[in-house]
Design brief:
This protein is an alpha/beta fold. It has helices at 44-58, 75-82, 99-107, 130-143, 156-160, 164-179, 193-206, 221-230, 247-252, 264-280, and strands spanning 28-32, 63-67, 88-91, 111-114, 124-128, 149-152, 185-187, 212-215, 240-245, 258-261, 288-291, 295-296. A six-stranded parallel β-sheet has the order 2-1-3-4-5-11, sandwiched between helices. The model is unreliable at 1-23 (pLDDT under 50).
């Protein structure tokens, strides 16, 4: 059986025994991943993670059992854990306060997370630096001369339920705006095209002089573009857009989105490696992997062109105050 090479970040490698420390087990990993799409279906990004975890698990001769549980009381989660149907669990869509994580920690069940929360120091995890990426997006726009920069986050439902990446992204945006001495304007937005159009309408209603935005909501991206077109704003001539998005989302809009990539396949592989390390070396300290992808410059950002009429009038002195001038 082919095994992945040693990874210095996770410690996983050819010496890892996929059967776990006891040499037995189910040869199955659990993935606890609640759907985040409208109608409780899995989004395209979520499906990419599911496929990535399944593919990485096969390199360790493990199958994958999926649970859509968003809380510890969910029957599928209880069957997976209490019935010991899996050797270890990867938990996703981590909330700031997450009873699934609390239950696993209390039960001593092997698990790692994709994402992190207040128990970050106690558990193994892989995550994106959402705060740092949002901050970098603001700085990219500020370097282009933009001063009115909006922020389009995920849905109100996800934010209010405590999804960590939505809160971290807002934190990074707000910090960067303060550092640039700019006024923040943050918006929650549903994960769909129509919601993107609606939030763009609200942005321009609140401040018609807005010239750019940062977004974590790739599912609403097409709607944001449509809203700009309806208002006669061309990207990037009149309005710049930058965000955190998977490559396929960034490349399917026109013009293509300047964005930091969400490396779903790499994050999935690292999570599985961390899980196998947890199974083979249960006494070792938890490993933490924070990925910081670079922003890929495409075609959606450009120098700021202020909206006509939005610039303050210059206060010229009255020439009568200078009687000896030649004017």
């Amino acid at each position: 059986m082919t095994r992945p090479p040693d990874d210095p970040r996770t410690g996983a490698g050819p010496s890892a025994d996929p059967r776990g420390p006891a040499g037995g087990g189910t040869h199955t990993l659990g993935l606890v991943y609640p759907p985040a799409g409208r109608g409780h279906d899995y989004t395209g990004m979520q499906l990419a993670f599911i496929g990535g975890v399944a593919e990485a698990a096969t390199t360790y001769d493990h199958d994958l059992l999926l649970s859509p549980a968003d809380q510890a009381s969910d029957p599928s989660f209880r069957r997976m854990i209490d019935g010991r149907r899996v050797d270890g669990v990867i938990v996703m869509e981590i909330r700031l306060e997450d009873d699934r994580v609390e239950h696993l920690a209390k039960a001593g069940f092997p698990f790692v997370t994709i994402g992190r929360n207040s128990r970050a120091e106690e558990t193994g995890w892989v995550d994106l630096d959402f705060a740092g990426l949002a901050r970098g997006c603001v700085y990219h726009l500020a370097d282009l001369g933009h001063r009115r920069i909006a922020f389009v986050n995920r849905s109100e439902e996800l934010f209010e339920s405590g999804y960590g990446f939505a809160h971290l992204g807002l934190e990074g945006y707000t910090k960067a705006m303060a550092e640039q001495v700019l006024t923040p304007h943050a918006y929650l937005c549903g994960d769909e095209v129509a919601a993107g159009e609606a939030v763009l309408e609200q942005i321009l209603l609140d401040d018609p002089a807005t010239t750019s935005l940062v977004t974590l909501n790739e599912a609403a991206l097409e709607g944001l573009y449509r809203g700009l077109t309806r208002h006669g704003r061309r990207v990037p001539r009149d309005f710049s857009v930058v965000g955190v998005a998977a490559g396929r989302w960034a490349e399917q809009v026109n013009p293509q989105l300047t964005a930091a990539e969400i490396p779903a396949k790499e994050m999935s592989r690292v999570a599985v490696d961390l899980m196998m390390r947890r199974l083979t070396s249960p006494g070792s300290p938890p490993r933490h992997v924070l990925l910081k992808p670079l922003i890929s410059l495409r075609a959606s950002t450009g120098p700021c062109r202020p909206v006509p009429g939005s610039e303050p009038d210059l206060d010229f002195p009255d020439l009568e105050d200078f009687p000896d001038s030649d004017f």
